[in-house]
Amino acid sequence: MAEVFVAGETLVDFVPDAGETLREVDGYAHRAGGAPANVAVGLARLGSPPAFWTRLGDDAFGDFLAETLAAEGIPETHVERVEGRTTLAVVSPPDSDGPRFGFYGDRDATFGFAPDSVPTEALAGDGKASPWVHLGGVALTHPRGRAATRELLAVAADVDCPVSFDVNYRPDLVPDGAAEAVSTAVRETVGESDVVLCSGEDAAAAGFSESEGSDLARDLIALGPHTAVVTMGDEGALAVSSDAAPWGAETVRHGGFSVDAVDATGAGDAFTAGVLSRLAGRRTAGDADGDPLREALAFGNATAALSVRSVGGMGSIPSREEVVTFLEARE
């Protein structure tokens, strides 16, 4: 059984050529993307291939994504092929104003997870420890995605799976009139998770009163999780945990690493994959020595730092060996 079970969207990122605005871009390269998909592939590259529940359209882009996931070592067991067109995310140039992503395509195909399709058998321990479950927030923008997330959380609680949740709030995907329902679902999912990851930008968009550092982390913990991780871009990351955490109550900050950045697309997902690979791996091994949270932040920041040195989210995530070598050199 895989150490981690990831659930969420896989889509196609259209990454622009050089240009300060979309009008000035001459062309795009299509890349596999979607935050949960990036995390799943990141875990595979870091030596912990996960189970991955996702939905792909039956178009040519869906074929491309299915082939990409297979090539990365992601089992096809829970990769659903459904009728509809794959969602496309057009990435804006780094220095342009406005939203970073613009979304096009069939939302039902990509985000419309069916509650009765939750792969409960993948979460049963079968005599071993149940897997760590990781969820992304974008599925909550779709009514079926919200229902499926509630069902998945209920199953995870029944079989004692630890749950991590990446808020990843995308206002452009929230339908008119659904903002309150999505915001409520985000808070409920935070409350039913063990570890929550969030950026200040996502927190502000989702309506949290605090959107910076330890204040945001404590607001998140007040909703129910035992650990909150706040990413801060080139300033690194901060984690706050309560007494309920396996590693105890602590506040840990890691300033990140200075590198020559080319493209930050997917850096947060690379960070998440790095953090989960350490925390889930320690849990499976029963390893309680050292400082798990501090080591996870360092590993996540190293993974993210290596990912921004080339273009394209999923394709730029490094291997475990590359991260270990990088950390040893920085020590």
Please tell me about this protein's structure.
With 331 residues, the protein is α/β, with parallel strands linked by helices. The chain has a single domain (4-330), classed as Ribokinase (UDP-N-acetylmuramoyl-L-alanine:D-glutamate ligase, 3-Layer(aba) Sandwich), CATH 3.40.1190. 36% of the residues lie in helices and 19% in strands. The chain contains 10 helices and 13 strands. Strands 5-4-1-8-9-10-11-12-13 form a 9-stranded mixed beta sheet, with helices on both faces. α1 (35-45) crosses α8, α8 runs antiparallel to α9 (292-307) and α9 (292-307) packs across α10 (320-330). The two termini are 34 Å apart. Residues 1-319 form the Carbohydrate kinase PfkB domain.
